[in-house]
Amino acid sequence: MGDKSNQQLVSMDQMLQLFKELNKPSSSSTENTTHSLTLTEKLNHHNYAKWARLMYLAISGRGRLQHITAAPPNTDDTEYPKWVQRDSQVFSWIIENINSDIVNQFLDYPTAKELWKGIETLYSSGKDELQIYDLATKVGSIKQGKDSIEVFYGKLISIWKEIDRRTPSPMKCPEDITAYNNIIQRQRLYQLLAGINDSLDKERRDLLHQDPLPTVEMAYAQIRWEILRRSIMYDDTPPEGTLSSEIGAGLAKKGKQDYTRGRRGNDDKAHLKCTHCGGTRHTKEGCFKIVGYPEWWPDLKKRTKDRDGRANITEGVSEKVGKANNSSEEQGCSDGRDHWAWY
């Protein structure tokens, strides 16, 4: 049932396509309202919430919303014949967007409003409690897992929207509405924090210690920023499920690839010899004596000297190490690593 609830969501592409269709220029408003109306998908047993929203917008965009929301005029009204004509048009729009295997049960309704209400009664009221139960169960058990934080948060948003659509706020007074919304916000904050991976436990605790508690949107933004920071700062790939799918992930991946590529290239330079200084593992084009020494070169020499000094404590060996270090300007560095790869 979780997949079915996801299918009921109205995507942005579908909304844009609908608005584009409604805004097509026509020679007159009469011509526009007599055109057929085709939605991106027809009503079936599983997509009522999504279909109803799209159908409502389409009818409203053509100026016929009163035919599914208002009572018809009296039969002796002078406008009644025109109203019947327009109502039949709205009726046909709805029928045309119902799957053929279920459309027959809706053909006998006398008006578009009664047809609309009949569909709502069949697919909304009769099954909402089961659907709400399914959504509540799913939102309480959903975990981030291998999903990026963006994908995980998007799944939560989708379920929350479906729940809101089926359980509108019962509050009327502004103060009660605010209090009710705060309760919902707190519940959804808990659901978000309960679903993120354990590698974000510190961020989870920090958010719960804030007073007042942050909104769901603020908490998501802070978590996402922390994941982005980690993905940039880590030398290696961050723990599974915490790598953001956007900028930080790209930077972290690039850094790791560059490092791996550099290590792999060490063996490829073993045969190189500089014709300028006679050093190995580099060529004349990359020789530091020609192109200049990088800023890190003195520090590298010092670290190499210190390391070799600790490993060789006798005077004779120290002299040998010093000699090796003195030659490092020509041949790279005595530790055997490919420091010429900097160029």
Task: From the structure above, extract its key features.
single chain, 343 residues, mainly alpha, elongated, disordered N terminus, disordered C terminus
What does this structure look like?
The chain is mainly α and 343 residues long. It has 3 domains: 2-126, no CATH class; 129-233, no CATH class; 273-342, no CATH class. It is built from 17 helices and no strands. Helix 9 (149-166) runs antiparallel to helix 10 (174-195). The longest helix has 22 residues, at 174-195. It is elongated, with a radius of gyration of 34 Å. Residues 1-8, 25-31, 238-247 and 317-343 have low confidence and may be disordered.
Whole-angstrom Rg: 34 Å
Number of domains: 3
The total count of strands amounts to: 0
Shape: elongated
Binned strand content: under 5%
Q: Could you tell me how far the N terminus lies from the C terminus, measured between alpha carbons in angstroms?
A: 58 Å
Number of helices: 17
Oligomeric state of the chains?
Answer: single chain
The largest pleated sheet is described as: none
**H and E string:** HHHHHHHHHHHHHHHHH
- Chain-averaged pLDDT: 76
Helix fraction, binned, reads: 55-70%
Structural class: mainly alpha
What's the gist of this structure?
This protein has 343 residues and is an all-alpha fold. The chain has helices at residues 2-7, 12-22, 29-34, 48-61, 66-69, 80-96, 112-125, 128-141, 149-166, 174-195, 201-208, 216-233, 247-266, 288-291, 297-311, 315-326, 328-331.
